[in-house]
Amino acid sequence: MTNKVILVVLDGLAYETAQTCMGFLQGLTEQGKATLYKVESGLPSMSRPLYEAILTGVAPAQSGIIHNQITRNSTQSSIFSLSRRAGLTTAAAAFHWVSELYNNTPYVATRDRFTNDPKQLIQHGIFYSEDSYPDSHLYLDAECLRRTYDPDFLLVHPMNIDGAGHKAGLDSAHYRNTTRHSDTQLSEQLVHWMAAGYQVLVTADHGMNVDKSHGGTLPEERDIPLYVIGERFSHDVDAAPKQLELCGTVCELLGIRNHGKPVASALLAEEVIEELTEELAEVCC
Prior knowledge:
Blueprint: E1 5-9, H1 15-21, H2 23-30, E2 35-40, H3 47-56, H4 60-63, H5 79-85, E3 90-95, H6 96-102, H7 109-112, E4 114-116, E5 124-128, H8 135-149, E6 153-156, H9 160-168, H10 173-195, E7 199-203, H11 219-222, E8 223-229, H12 246-254, H13 270-284
Helix pairs in contact: 8-10, 9-10
């Protein structure tokens, strides 16, 4: 078991599609090695605002990242900035909007595609700028970063599911089959992460609708999966985690204290909560 965390954000994956098409992850839930929760995404149900919401715990209306066309650095404390402040190592294999939020804005491929800079919030990164960039390549990028730099926090962010939804819509063979393919490709790396004792969260930013889009309030646009894998989670099926709590939960798993973010304590094992309580009591005294 380790304090190191891998957060996988499967862009555009609706909850029911995850439940029916993510065969490997659903298999882990049947075996008691993972727990699946239904989480409601923030609004608007768009990508860039919800990357910020997941990674900072701040809703779009408060963060100012209110739609996809806002291109600037985040002004909030994030998992990346809090990790760096704590002396931890960070990495991301992700769409270039993540680089723009936490490293350099605007994204310049020749400078930013391959990032290896200890001064950046995301110190080690492989970023892509085309929705069609294969998920299989993205998972290999993530594993390369893990093996090369051994980060404490690694963000993994593939885009093919969202791209399929925009081309064919929620109720399409293309969307479902792309989800199945991504699950298979993720499984090849996930078995290594599990064997190494990582705490892994697999979720989405938003879902998808039959109009080949998202951004509104429909359940299929907002209902997203959250799989948790690792011994530091409670695996309490009655827990009701919120999207804005993911930042705080990841920080607690990383051992970062006093970050001021809400924490889904029910997601954490009792011994982890006891650890945190003891440490906070020592600080208070």
